[in-house]
Write a structure and sequence with these properties.
Elements: E1 11-14, H1 22-28, E2 34-38, H2 42-45, H3 48-58, E3 63-66, H4 75-88, E4 92-97, H5 99-111, H6 119-123, E5 134-138, E6 152-155, E7 160-163, E8 174-177, H7 187-205, H8 213-235, H9 240-254, H10 267-279, H11 283-298, H12 303-314, H13 323-340, H14 357-365, H15 381-390
Parallel strand pairs: 1-8, 2-3, 2-4, 4-5, 5-8
Antiparallel strand pairs: 6-7
The chain binds 5,6-dihydroxy-NADP (NZQ) and zinc ion.
Length: 392
């Protein structure tokens, strides 16, 4: 196991009805005037908005609203939010929604004190050195952003979906995780979240670092839990126990507790960011397409690790004479699992075209440090294209 620093300063308030405490939490972290950020209306339909605004009012906190954040959040909403936050003199950003809403709130929070273009933080022209505090009321398991040190925004000029440089400064002060709020998630979003969690675990699980037995087992336990809970939540949206397992698994999948002390991969995420930039697919849906293809492509690099995954997560029988068969079976089982949740597993199913593959690799190359990527196996432009062809 490598040396590591683990820093997770976010307060997590977990459980049924916790949204009613949000006003007190904002006060606890110094907020006096709130910019409430949310998406396209799901929070009004499922009651989360009413709970949160009642709590703010009860705590005597004035608030203004920025609504209409889209999935795969756009720069336009960030510019709008920066203006609004300045005009209204807000000193606290409260995100009510999933990753897109939280990332938008984070970007506004660290940009509001800067006179230039907020995208300068993403290109690295300026460094994030201060931010307004951010709190989150999560409505979708597996957003990741609720405890994380990054924000992903699509710059509309150039259609660039980029993460800002990671910094502990922008980790939310608190996150309210009420599994009940996720019961209104449509099956597709539920499944997409489950895939994203699994991808976040697998990006860590496939490592070249030796002697990481504890975190390997944590990864496997999380993966097994998701394999068991996700179908229940898809079939029975109000299954609170399944929603609760998914919500906490999503948190552990994203906060790096199962990935400390090891070199991580992240190639599938890098490739997926191009798919969602080109086709605006759900992040998890894009990962369901990329992840098994990436696994097939890199499997020979460490067949025994893939075989172990197959046995410990999907209960495949170990073929000691031909471990590559076991490895392949596990990948097939993962792909079948994604399909059973209603997720796409081919490019065509997300509207992607094979002829766009070179353009996606070229687009990636424009990014600072675009190639190579991948901590398990190095991926250059040719490898990225080969992986995408495996997903045809
Ligand atoms: O807009 P509304 O009407 O609210 O609908 C949303 C949205 O359409 C809907 N939704 C959310 N909660 C709901 C609900 N519908 C019904 N009931 C509820 N309780 O779900 C849709 C998707 O929301 P979004 O926030 O986009 O989903 P997610 O949480 O998956 O976030 C994805 C974004 O996060 C970025 C991704 O790249 C993507 O842009 N990521 C950010 C990370 C970070 N900052 O650390 C890490 C992640 O891996 C990820 O890359
Ligand atoms: Zn992700």
């Amino acid at each position: 196991m490598d040396n590591f620093t683990f820093y997770s300063p976010t307060l997590f308030a977990f459980g049924d009805g916790e949204g009613k405490n949000v006003g007190a939490l904002v006060r606890r972290f110094g907020g006096t005037r709130v910019l409430l950020v949310y998406g396209g209306g799901s929070v009004k339909r499922n009651g989360a908005y009413d709970t949160v605004t009642a709590s703010l009012t009860e705590a005597g906190l004035p608030f203004v609203e920025l609504s209409g954040v889209q999935a795969n959040p756009r720069s336009g909403k960030v510019y709008e939010g920066i203006e609004l936050c300045r005009e209204e003199g807000c000193d606290f950003l409260l995100a009510l929604g999933g990753g897109s809403v939280i990332d938008t709130a984070k970007a506004i929070a660290f940009s509001v004190g800067y006179d230039g273009d907020f995208w300068d933080f993403f290109t690295g022209k300026v460094k994030i050195e201060r931010t307004l505090p951010v709190g989150a009321v999560l409505t979708i398991a597996a957003a990741g952003s609720e405890g994380s040190d990054s924000a992903v925004i699509t710059q509309e000029k150039g259609n660039l979906k980029w993460g800002c440089p990671k910094t502990d400064l922008i980790r939310p002060k608190f996150a309210v995780l009420d599994p009940r709020l996720t019961c209104s998630l449509p099956a597709y979003q539920t499944a997409s979240g489950a895939v994203d969690m699994m991808a976040h675990i697998l990006e860590r699980y496939f490592t070249n670092t030796p002697d990481v037995g504890l975190t390997d087992r944590l990864c496997e336990a999380l993966l097994k839990t998701i394999v068991e809970a996700a179908p229940r939540a898809v079939a029975h949206p109000d299954d609170y126990a399944a929603r609760a397992d998914l919500m906490w698994a999503g948190m552990l999948a994203h906060n790096n507790s199962c990935g400390v002390g090891r070199v991580q991969d992240w190639a599938s995420h890098q490739i997926e960011h191009e798919l969602s930039a080109f086709y605006d697919c759900a992040h998890g849906a894009g990962l369901a397409v990329v992840m098994p293809a990436w696994m097939e492509y890199v499997m020979d690099h460490d067949v025994m690790r893939f075989a172990r995954f197959s046995v410990n997560v999907f209960g495949c029988e170990m073929d000691f004479a031909r471990p590559e068969n076991t490895a392949r079976e596990g990948i097939a089982r993962l792909r079948a699992f994604f399909r059973s949740l209603g997720m796409p597993t081919t490019l065509a199913e997300i509207g992607a075209r094979a002829e766009d593959i070179p353009a996606m690799a070229a687009h990636r190359a424009e990014k600072p440090n675009g190639f190579p990527f991948g901590g398990f196996v190095k991926i250059g432009p040719d490898e990225m294209q080969a992986i995408l062809h495996l997903a045809e």
